[in-house]
Amino acid sequence: MNNCHTQSKHHVLLLSFFYAITIAAFYLAATSTSTENENLALARTFVCILLLPVLSKYIIQLIALPFYSVKEKFPQTNKQLKSTSTLSVSVIIPAYNEEVGIIKTLKSVLNTHYEYLEIVIVNDGSTDNTHDLVNEFIENEKSDYNAEIKYLKLNNGGKAKALNKALKLASNDIVMTIDGDCLMDKNAITNTVKRFNCETIGAVAGNVIVGNKSKTIEVIQQLEYLCGFFLRRADSVFNSVFIIGGAAAAYRRNVLIEVGDFCTDIVTEDIEMSTRILAAGYKTRYAADAVTFTEGPSNWRCLFDQRLRWKFGRFQTFIKFQNIFFSKNKQHNKYLTWLLLPIAVYAEFILLIEVLVLAVFFTYTFVCNDYLPLVVLITVMATIIMIQICFDSKRHFHKNLFVIAPVAWLMFLTVDIVEFQALYRSLKRLYKKENLQWQKWVRIGL
User: Fold this and answer.
1) By mean pLDDT, which of 18-22, 35-39, 271-275 is the weakest?
2) d(Cα 232, Cα 24) in Å, to the nearest integer?
3) Which residues lie across from 291 on neighbouring strands?
4) Helix (H) or strand (E) holding 229
5) Could you tell me how far CA 7 lies from the centroid of its own chain?
6) Are 87 and 251 spatial neighbours (Cβ–Cβ below 8 Å)?
7) How far apart are the C-alpha atoms of 206 and 182, rounded to whole Å?
8) Beta carbons of 379 and 217 less than 8 angstroms apart
């Protein structure tokens, strides 16, 4: 109890500090008289040019966002359009030392009450109580649910190998994956499956929400996920969602058979798979109303290691699929190959020099007393976040972020620090030709 009170106190103090800085920026913008400095103005112009490609991508995505709802209400009408009402689903739950949450995860999938459902639990050599808990549930509670449950216990070989073994047991039309620390919303399967209304759709990404939000580090991740997944609506408009995380991923089974097993050499096997499906000419979509709650890391060391794996795995994927960058092949989506992927790599370069970029921006701001650009940035960012909260299918869950929105610009600076360390460590590993293993952290449970 005392620990919770201390965390809450620290969160309030940090939020108050961020608000003080933000209010000061608005006060200075209203009371200061700006001056000219040619050298700094030139430096600021150079920074703006550097940021232009990334800003252009965001502008295109913001313009495309309204079309997501239109596309959802009025799906394409062509000969390939299929009914999804009878599609059967296999949900794979890979688990390694997930005793804290595995039964909650399993029950959340069963409580979707999807009519044509089988569940494949694959235990990747857990050394805790995961095996006993799953066995006990199957023996005592399986009969309470109208779904087939298959259980596979393996020696530890990594998540990708475990998924590939589970695929051999999965027999239904759509294969979904969910991590052993996640909770699936009751409508998640139904809302995911209805996106497979066309044979050319190979995979669908669900909406992942960070479910633990008692600590500052958790709230930062909640905000980050909200913003990141919201922009996938735009990628979905162009049928090019290239990051489909394993916490809430769905694939057409015959597409998985066509493109092959999950890659065991890349630590983000989920991103590699979604990129491979796109490279094969299939479309990918995003289901904003197919919600899965995940447990975000609750300490900085674990968050740093998680983002290292994500960053390193993305670089591995980019290197493997470098041939689709700026591809002229007709089966490759131009939005993906000419915008998303190149800008994703370019954004890493910007992150690498972000300290210099921020130094130029704030030096210009303080020396020239020109706080208007900063205030405009804060206002635009806060407005966009509030719009995102209002349009999210779980807006009530995100209501705490209304208080965070005005100081989100400072929250995202914290995210950039986390991402920068991941970038540095990834580049170092790539240079030294070192690999990376899965990292685990202590689960608290949702």
Assistant:
1) 35-39
2) 34
3) 207
4) helix 216-230
5) 26
6) no
7) 12
8) no
